[in-house]
Amino acid sequence: MASRSVRSLNVDGGNNAADAVRNCSTLSELHTVLPLSFRPSLAAYLTKIYRIATKTGNVNNTIVQYEKHISNGSFPPFIEKTIKEPKIQFSNEYDGSPEGRAVEATFKKIVKDARTSYLAEALKRKKEEQTVLIHLLRFDEKAWKAEVEATAERVAATLGATFVKDTENPKTPWTWSGTPIPNELKIEAQGLWFAGSTYHTKAIGIARAAADKALIQRVKNLTMKERTESSKMDIDSKERSVKDTIEDALKKFKQELSSGAISTLPSVKRRRDTLTSNSREEQDHRSVKRRTEEGSKTQWWQEQRACQQAPAKKEECEAEKELTVPAFLAQCSKEFRPWLGETFPPVYSELSDRTRMKIEFALMKTWEADSIRSAKPGVFQHEDVSLPEEIEFSLSVNHKFILHQEPLKHDVDEAKEQFRRTVRTRWLFRDKTDSDFIAKFHVKNDQWDPPPASRSIEQGINEAMVVLDNSVSRAYASIPSYPAHLSIKWNAVRDYLADYRLLVKLTDKNLGLAVFPISWYDAKILLMLSDKSTYEWVTDVPTPALVEKLMKLVKKWHLPANMTKYITHRTKTELPQFHAIPKVHKNPWTLRPIVPSHSWVTSCVSTVLDHLLQPILKQIPWIVSSSKEVIVRLQEVKLNPGKPLWILTGDVVSFYTNIPIEECELILSGAWSHFAGDSSIDKSTIRSMVKFIMENNYLEYQGEKFRQRNGLAMGTSSAPVIANIYAARHENSLQLHKDPRVRFYGRYIDDCLCLFQGTREEVQEFCDNFRIGPLEVTWSISDARDSFLDIELIVGAWPDTCAVHTRLFRKHLNKHLYIPWSSAHPLAVKKGFVKAELTRLVILCSRSGYFADARQEFYGNLRRRGYPPKELDEWFTQVSYRDRPKLLLPKEEKANMAPLMLRGHYNPVWDFVDVKEVLRTAKWKWTKEELPESLQQPLIRSLGRTRSLFDLMSSWNKTTLQEFGLEAGPLVWK
């Protein structure tokens, strides 16, 4: 049983602490012996020593093995596999000559010399590694005592005591004064001051014992394997194993089968029957199989007889044995199942690999065939790029892949302080309400701290902090080593991309990652920026003048005080860096421009304008905000009987950049006057804000500065709402709701969907005449199926139930690069992502069969990304298609009251924190007070991501672009 602490072992401290340490046999036990207050920091120190000692033990064992190989004249397997004897063919004449006979010995000597040099160098490097690790294992008394002192000082601050250190005599332990400190804590702390080497030595001993145990087990396993192989030797053949004997028998059988000495014929009793499947694809196979059964059987028998009668025609017969799919199906019994190998007919063993693959593809469902490429993850590569397999595999982990890191104690400390501040602030303003308060426009005063709350509230906070500290201690005791993760050499990926001047970026439509030459990217960007109707080159950006102008305008706008303060205090002047993402679904590839205006002069104004205009969108019925809204509205569509239905999907060409500035100002101000006429904000303010945002779209590329002359920047927060309202004004003039042929019309930004009933000529006329003001719309017309967003719409023979059926639209190029299981995302995040995706599938699929197919495909893709079946089986049962009616209901609007939060980052320590227990402990003290509603909210963990592959990609791309710009020289614009 593990020791919980020095006190639990009835040790008074001091030198007796060594007895408790000596009783430990694992690192976890050694952690628990540490006093609770000192455990988080000192456990990390001991864990580090343990890891170094483990590596040292492994290196020592490796050195012993290398030296043993040298003395025996043998080589380790990794050297033998790396340096092999070349297999070179020579003519018989040369082989018979004296020179030819000496070739084999010469090559053997060369290979042996190379292996010997390799082994000697490996031994040398391992001894150097041993020296470095041994040096790191030396006990650093100064570092240990500094860690103990730092912890003691934090303990004193927590308990309200004073930490006193004798600076003149550093070897003298510290003392505590002021608030009485428990005597037991003093004894434990003073004992740690002198027991550092004891803990240090024990950590090394535990590591070495573990390494020796692992080595013994490996040797034991190897010995057992050798004995097992020896026991399987055939009695009549003392040197050959049973395995070799069986393989020889199979080879002999195959030769006899090929020569015609024996034949394998299908059983006469077997007969063909239907396959037990409901899929349309397999029904097609049944019909093909039924039509060709008799002819195929006759053909097969004739082929076998011809081969037996004329063995000399072996090659010809082998070619004839490559059966067609119907011929193979004719040999299958009624028990045949494509997923059960034992139900395949005997003829399957004779078929070539090519024929087997052809049969497997024929028996697949459509989605199974489409997802075959997902089994080998990859990225999109430009026609001028050919990535090595290991580089492609590394990038295919997904841009969201979180890199693993050690547990972060300071992350919890920061969350504790933020929690304390939040509780105190909510208690301070418990009797004050502000209906105009908007959290995202709040400007925090860094110079202000809330005063302590009441005694009961403060006691509850302190009790909650103790629970958090205990959770952290448990975490460090349970996570002694660095978490296992996918080993990817990111430096090698970075160097390869840099050497070959390649960029890696996300793709348009979220299809995956794409790799392309920087020269191609740069040429496309410059071609975009050379469009003088959209962009103009400027020598300088008048940033100070723009800020001054904005400050004057804000005073005239008469916005609410919190919005005014937000704009005046949060406005930044970071010039947007122009970039683009590849459209890999286009042939040839093109680019979609992006102007990230998150920190520019217009950014805060854009955020405020977006907030003001959002309520207007809810009053425009044909503007949709999600796939769920489209599904719900499609269920309400009623068709005119007897008229053909057409699915029309449209795309607004270059939507953002083609919106005229002046016309857009007028339309937005008019919409504000119409929908928000009773607001205290005048329509002139809205017009002025739109004008300021659209006229000051400055950007930079490779040091050169430009201004967007027309349209909206793809990156400013108000762009979608401005574009939507602008287009809605022109759509309203079309009076689509009065056209009886238009059964449904909806638009999501630049994507349009229309259900139209009429003749082909009427459909074409409708599409030709449809325009959104000056904006052109390109239409796709279908009377069978089409896609909109992530929805596939299918026209079927179900007019009495619904206009169209829907299911998940599978993008042909999508590589399904979901977050891999090896990513450092918390388990709760992975579970949430899986359940959210299943919920999306339930909403999208109008029939249970569609959901079953999509669900099975999703399961397979997750398994290929490393997700274990145990977890998937549990999560998949938690989402049912029977819940679809409930999921399609509108969400209930909850009170605008933020929950209490523990803010942190993805960190394994948080897995040990029970937020319900933390809040329950705090409220046990808070019950003495009448809590405001703000303190009755639930407590949640709000965790942000840590370093990801996307961060690495951004850094690599930035460096590569900078180096390319320096070599290419300055841009010249006329």
Automatic annotation (TrEMBL):
Coiled coil: none
Composition skew (Basic and acidic residues), residue ranges: 279-296
Superkingdom, taxonomy of origin: Eukaryota
Residues of the Reverse transcriptase domain: 562-799
UniProt region (Disordered), positions on chain: 264-301
InterPro entries, A to Z: HTH_animal, RT_dom
One Pfam family hit: HTH_animal
Protein name: Reverse transcriptase domain-containing protein
